[in-house]
Amino acid sequence: MSTIKLNKSSAPKIGAEQIALLEKLSNAVGVSGDEGEIRSIVLETIKPFVDEVHEDAMGNIIAIHKAKTEKSLRVMVDAHMDEVGFMIIAEDEGGLYQFETVGGIDVRSLPAKTVWVGKDHLPGVIGAKPIHLTDKGEMDSTIHLDTLRIDVGKDPGGKVKVGDRATFATKFEQSGSVLFGKALDDRIGVVTLIELLKHAPDHIELQAAFTVQEELGLRGARVAAYGLNPDLAFAIDSTPSFDQPTWDGSENTQYNTRLGAGPAIYLSDAGTLSDPRLIRRLTQTAEKHAIPYQFRQPGGGGTDAGAIHLRRGGIPSVSISIPGRYAHTAVLVSRVEDWQHGLALLYHTLLELTPDVLSGER
Prior knowledge:
Shape: globular
Structural class: alpha+beta
Distance between the termini: 38 Å
Strand order of the largest sheet: 1-2-12-3-13-16-14-15
Radius of gyration: 21 Å
Strand content: 15-25%
Order of helices and strands: HHEEEEEEEHEEEEHEHEEHEHEEH
């Protein structure tokens, strides 16, 4: 491991270097079960900052920054590498391919979306019947996945095969403090975890897990958490922000999270009741350092914490997510300030973490 002097007085900043890495990761393709492009970028980036790193049987990257003190907490911090997308399941004639969705995608959003297909990122489009040839009955009916095809224009000469993944062909862009890109769920979390490794405190063992197949049921995190057996865990993710105005002008009370209100601390979701001791520690740290934060509204959805907290004899866990609009579509919209505050909250929490965090009342 290289020797790097760190400034512990303030949290690391989100700047041009971090945004460039996010752009690289967002533009790469890593649909669940085929995360190799993301894995390569992560491994190349983190090796100078860790004591141990390996790829497990599932394809997770497990990276360890060892503690310099005895009887240190083993702290797992998780971010998933995979994204939602598509799998080619059959070939029709003329460059047309049948496909299935991988992860939760609303089929209504798919017609006319451009995609990248296979290892060569072959350009294609999800074909839809033109409006000129569509009758009113069809306009009012539900779109079914089996009526759609990925169209690459002509026979690609074997460059597309059954089992290949495809994803939205969305190029990352930044406009001031606003970030636009595909797979910001959870590439923002991946870059955040990399920054935490680069600035890891010496009094804890930081167990970084860059996991696979989160979008298919938290599969990689189950294996990673069992293997690491940490004392506690934090899951970093992106969560839907549904803070748009309502159609009738009434108050939007079901917003889940809001852009610009800071990172979202989870109280509960479909798979987890977050550990109250870790919730308290996060909120106390945020208030101590004047870091804006919000609570994610309880409800559906979930993160890798849902799998982590059930491993072995139980692992105290909590999730922290960066809000983003239009989750699981061709483009997600997030804000740099929410990301910065999320990084700062995690950095200060890890820096000030002591074993007594688990001694409080549940």
